[in-house]
Amino acid sequence: MTLLTITTSPTPTALVLEVAGDLDHTNAQQLRRAAREAALPAGRLLAVDLGKLSFCDSSGITALLAVRNHVVSVGARVVLVAVPVNTRRLLNMTGLDQVFDMRDAA
């Protein structure tokens, strides 16, 4: 098991949450909290960078959905960046690839 770390950094075009390690039932709440605590004004973009994500279970997928719902509720936008193959496969199988904007790079 790899420890989950979430780093927040502003860029000129977006607020970036870099998620690294394992995102699972033991720590999915950390991602939800990081999104809620981010100063995200209406119209701003939140880029969730998953390039260093090593594992994601159904709780992690649910947390990503909660982040999306929060961001949309404040009038902002969200994009998933560098989604690992296994996580992308889960999103595709559940139809969430139609819900999330996914990009290879920010």
Q: Tell me the name of the CATH homologous superfamily.
A: STAS domain
Q: Tell me, what is the CATH class?
A: Alpha Beta
What helical percentage do the residues reach? 25-40%
Q: In percent, how much strand structure appears in the residues?
A: 25-35%
Low-confidence stretches: none
InterPro entries: Anti-sigma_ant, STAS_dom, STAS_dom_sf
Domain STAS: 4-106
Family: Belongs to the anti-sigma-factor antagonist family.
Pfam families: STAS (PF01740)
Keywords:
alpha/beta, STAS_dom_sf, single chain, 3 helices, 106 residues, STAS_dom, Transcription Regulator spoIIAA, five-stranded mixed β-sheet, 5 strands
Sequence-ordered SSE layout with sheet pairings:
Elements: E1 5-10, E2 15-23, H1 28-37, E3 45-56, H2 58-73, E4 77-81, H3 85-93, E5 102-103
Parallel strand pairs: 2-3, 3-4, 4-5
Antiparallel strand pairs: 1-2
Helix pairs in contact: 1-2
Provide a descriptive summary of the structure in words.
Helix 1 packs parallel to helix 2. The chain is built from 3 helices and 5 strands; from the N terminus they run ββαβαβαβ. The protein has a single domain, classed as Transcription Regulator spoIIAA (2-Layer Sandwich), CATH 3.30.750. The mean pLDDT is 95. It is 33% helix and 32% strand. A 5-stranded mixed β-sheet has the order 1-2-3-4-5, covered by helices on one side. A hairpin with a 4-residue loop joins strand 1 and strand 2. It is α/β, with parallel strands linked by helices and 106 residues long.
